[in-house]
Amino acid sequence: MSVEVPEVKEPSKYVGFDSITNQIESRLLKRGFQFNIMVVGRSGLGKSTLVNTLFSSKLTESHGRRSPTDPIEKTTEIEVSSHTLIENNVRLNINVIDTPGFGDQINNEKCWEPLVKYVKEQHSQYLRRELTAQRERYLPDTRVHCILYFIAPNGQKLRQLDVQALKKLSEIANVVPVIAKSDALTLEERSEFKKLLQKEFAKYKFNIYPYDSDELYDDERQLNEDIKSLIPFAIAGSEKVVQIDGEKTRVRTTRWGSINIEDVSQCEFVFLRDFLTRTHLQDLIETTAVVHYETFRTKQLIALKENNTNRQSGNPIPEKH
Amino acid sequence: MTRTLTAGSTTTPEQIRLRKQAKRGINFNILIAGENDLGKKTFINSLCDRECYNLDKWQSNSQAGSKSDFSINTDLFEYSPEGCIPIKLRVFLTHNCGFSLKRNNTPDEIKEFIEKQYRTVLDEELKVNRNPNIDDTRIHVALYFIHAAIKGLSTFDICMMKTIGERVNLIPVIAKSDGLTFSELYKVKEVVIKDITEHKIKIFNFLEGDDEAKIIPELESTEYEYLSKLQKSIPFAIIGSNTVGTGKLTRTNKAGTINIEDETLCDFKLVKNILFGSHLQELKDITVQKLYEQFRIEELSKG
């Protein structure tokens, strides 16, 4: 049975409905956009600095140290800080989700569980709001759109911790792995390490963002292929601004000299920034809703249905995680 | 072959003694502990200015056998610079320290290892027919390699350092400090000292005399200055050399060259002078006279 495709006609005289894109835009500008980004990695890898550098604003602060009164076995914490950035009338509401304590405990066996729980909770909250009879017009979106996973630049294979965490996290959200503090490596070491990591990702079959989709245009698909060959991005961050040739640039100065963060021959910060904010920001948000949230929603609704039929037929309700 | 001392001979009794001493060498046992990839082997290579450890990266990670199990490897190296008595360096190096997900046992395992060296000496001492020339493997100093983080010490590091510091002279060092800017290094040192104080980790104190009395500032002012400088520089920032054996201890890559013996760039020289120079004998003495005695009392009171 063939579906009838309506014939595409061009109006003989200009109607003007093409301005709907502008109408949508002005509506969206008023509302602002919501972007929730989670940073994951052991302490000392420059997570806070990178987030501040990415958005050129002081969004997070490296938080407190362990105090002697803390219990020896802590769990990874979740710290959310909300900010509103405005650029050319476009308002971006950002939630930066920090994960202090990840990978720093003596026993790291379950250190990713609080993260997984948080991501699922946001989906769960959104679902509940969606299913409420009288629901808000615009549901507040706290779902995690992007997880920046920081890998230490030691040139070795992925640690057990990274393998487990990446596996669990890439199943439920868009994961963008980065090589932290890549200025510690020479350019050769960096490309060797990247190739090694790409092999590891393939070996463990992580579902690393960006994803393939039938809906992509050819040039979008090409862009994704290019991005995939770059991932994981080798980055360095700096909050120190210096004037070079009259331009404000961010540099990182160690005993080796200065590197210009924004120089793509020295580090891939610019690629990451463009990827996250200039090319894939919309896709990150959309994929979270359309892929990850949908998967969660489907599972939950099927489970709900099963529970209901079980209750009706007097069967014991099976445990669903 | 008889040696006769005749008038005009160039061999003096003192020279004979020195020659005998040089032949025997000085024993020095050092524990190098810390997580993987912090430059522990590079440090030993830099210390002895030769390739004691082969650092082929791709090999070290695919060693057959237990890939992520914690172990301590023992190696013997000789450090014999011109005009000095050679040092017979016994290096205990941790392998896969803190590498596995569940590392609750690692502090206990290291404690057992340290105590085993003490116990070997104690057991021999208590024998009727004892061997006075048994190899003394008691650890004279432990260097703990800290992964630099502005947030301070990780739980694991705190636990490890507490355990080690109870039984051995502990000196904390900041690994791979060439990756830090000067202001970051300052912050890291500050926060590590805070953590060490707050968590009551026992580290080696340069300003404490043999009998725990603080060294009086008025006496021997240059020595006091030197010791203060050392005490203020804790934890020591280390950079490892990748040009050992070439005459200059430097670290080079495409960006340039750093002379790791330059005291304005890192504390490597300070550490080398402590270990092989000013504090070698003191570290040994404290181990034998204080730490071993402490262990001995505890062990014998148990029975």
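DSSP finds eight helices and nine strands in chain A.
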